[in-house]
Amino acid sequence: MDQIRKGMRAVSEAFLPVNPFAGKLRALLGILLLFILWTFNAQNRSLPVDGFIRPQPQGGFIANVLLDLAGRYFHPATLGLTFIPCILFFLARQQTALLLRQVTETDIKTAQKFLDRCAFSSNAVSIAARDGSRQARDPHALSVWTFGGPAKVSVSATEYVILRSSVTQRYQLVHCPADDRPCALLLAHHEYIAGTIPFSNLTFPLSEADAREFGRLKLRIIPPENATHTGLIRMQEISMEDARFLLETLNPGRVILPSIRPAIRRFLDTQDEGLPASTAVSKHSPCGRRSQPLKKHFCYAQTTALFLPGKKWFARPRKHTLHTGAIPAGVAASSTIQPLADQVLIGLEAHLQREMVSFFNLDKIKFTIENRGNE
Amino acid sequence: MIGNPTGPQSNQIIYNSGMQRNRLTETETSFKQRMIAILALALCAAPLLSDKPLANRLLISASAFIIYALSLLFWAHFLPFQHNGNSGRLPIFRIVMGRFFNSGKSIQPVKDGSFDPDYFALRSKPAISALLIDEHSAVITKADNGKRSLLLGGLQPLDQKATIVHVFHLLPAAFTFGPGGNHNPLTHTASTRNSLRSGKALHMDIERTRCLTADGIELVPVFNILYRIKAPQELENGTREWLAFSAFLESANATGNVSHQIAQMIGGQIANQIKQMMASTSWEQIEQAAPSQEKLSAYIQRMLDQPADTGGGHDHRNLLPAAWRNLFIISVSVGQVWTR
């Protein structure tokens, strides 16, 4: 069954290539076929052409030939037999467009343009893979965003595009490596743009988490890079879970940040990823002598931050803080801070990688921590 | 005097007008489709009226009908609806053909795990021929004989007399269980609350997670819960487990768009676990292990992590009833813990 389906798909791709030139040729072929059918019907002797337009006995030879041809070609039976299939073809298009309109709640013109584009690639739709294009008023661009290919999509070098095929149900990550100009991507039949992810969306400041001690550290999502080249475009097949995770970066506050925060908190609480025991909160003496459980803060006046705080202009060593990432000044001389910080980062990176992969069931996506604190 | 209706009456009117509008659009499109189908069939039958021999007339009419059917298949081939199953695009063609000759039923979309809530409110369900389900949703339907079916993304035909029971969102979801806000809800006096209604809501939020230690000290933790329902493809007996979970949800009177109910159930289970653990712990023990407010969260977090016994991290499935464990991936973190 799979073999048959693959064969059918190959035939479909061979007959309906995504190419405006091929689309025009297809339309031309259709017109030629129509003319052949018309001629066949006109020359068919079983049709009752007699009595419709008769050559005049006193007319000239050419006039008689033309009248004879007109009588044959424009006979109602010939016209009916020739153009009824065309009308049926057109009516089927209308019905399908109505169905598309009804299901997807778009207007009928957008649906018709989409069907024409699929059948004849009659208009080379070229759109930018920017999310803003979704607001485009151009019905062609709108139909590409709503229904998908075929279309020519321009991908800029500062974004990833996630494609999905409704036939194979596979996701592909598309990237344009050229810095100077956008790459052209031919969107095939049954392919649509699931999302466009700017590079800036793949970086999250860890300081947004509850653990503010990570200052200017950023978590960067690294999409898979073993891509196949199609011209300038790089395409990489990714799993459904990877694609869903990358699409979540468009709205990081929904799930990604709520998943990073507890992961960091767990890392700090357990301290089993290389954070020295000397950084433990419990080692510090509580500030004040208030009764439990009102005692909330610990005294960190004698500690040094492992990472620079988030804002350079506010680096006052605070007495009362929840600075769990800090280490005691006596323990950490300046020469020992950097290796310790590196050790913590490696541990945190491994921890986040493990947690995110296990929760989101990720396949090829990696995480890294960028330390911009010491820049 | 006729004014703008307010209260339940207005809701009823909005509800009715929404349904009416949908029905009008549906009827208009169905009427056009039916007219086009009648015109096409009339054109196919037109050669039968000629004075040719009957065999020729039948042959021409049959050819016209075949051309019409092939044209429908040609255009339907481009419909951008995903499909799954071994039968390829056959269900799509079946739905398309069915639409043209039986337009009494509609095709409804299911997007981001939600479906028209009006449908679940109606006692007699409107007829639906197919569901257009996006790739992030799953639907459970129930036939007349009680048999359940799981429908995943794509244009999925609905069996006759089958009704939609549950709609699931397959993307991960995060929610907070317990009283929100930065003020201690236990010391927040009634006079500062905005109204009786918000006070009652706050009281209910507190009650959800309120724990009492063995010596009667009151604690109100707030849980940040992150969960993901595993797709059937990720499970060994995915479909069977999904259908069993659907039966369980229905027995708990949870139908329709169940994301909220699932969140409440998960939150309730976790809060119950903590309540039980706290009931056997004295405040002295807690004080020794957690000498600060911050450490109190970590202490409860450790209590949560213990039964998970999976090395901590994102896996707290063991906090759930056995029947649910395979279906979910859950991560629970303790946010604030409020005390008096």
Describe the 3D structure.
The complex is a heterodimer of chains A (375) and B (340). Chain A is an alpha+beta fold and 375 residues long. Among the domains of chain A are: 14-122, no CATH class; 257-371, no CATH class. Chain A is built from nine helices and 15 strands. Chain A has helices at 2-15, 20-43, 61-73, 76-104, 108-120, 139-147, 240-248, 256-270, 334-360, and strands at residues 126-128, 151-155, 159-165, 171-175, 183-187, 191-198, 203-205, 217-222, 228-230, 233-238, 298-299, 303-305, 320-321, 326-328, 366-371. In chain A, strands 6-3-4-10-9 form a five-stranded antiparallel beta sheet. In chain A, a hairpin with a 5-residue loop joins strand 3 and strand 4 (171-175). By secondary structure, chain B is α+β, with helices and mostly antiparallel strands. Chain B folds into three domains: 1-78, no CATH class; 81-169, no CATH class; 173-339, Tetrahydropterin Synthase, Chain A (2-Layer Sandwich), CATH 3.30.479.30. Chain B has helices at residues 7-45, 54-76, 90-101, 117-121, 196-209, 238-251, 259-279, 283-289, 293-308, and strands at residues 106-110, 128-133, 137-142, 148-151, 154-157, 163-169, 173-177, 211-212, 218-229, 256-257, 328-339. In chain B, the strands form three sheets. Chain B has a four-stranded mixed beta sheet, with helices on one face. In chain B, strands 7, 8, 9 and 11 form a four-stranded antiparallel beta sheet that branches. The relative contact order of chain B is 0.09. Classes of the chains: A alpha+beta (375), B alpha+beta (340). The interface between A and B is large, with 72 and 75 residues.
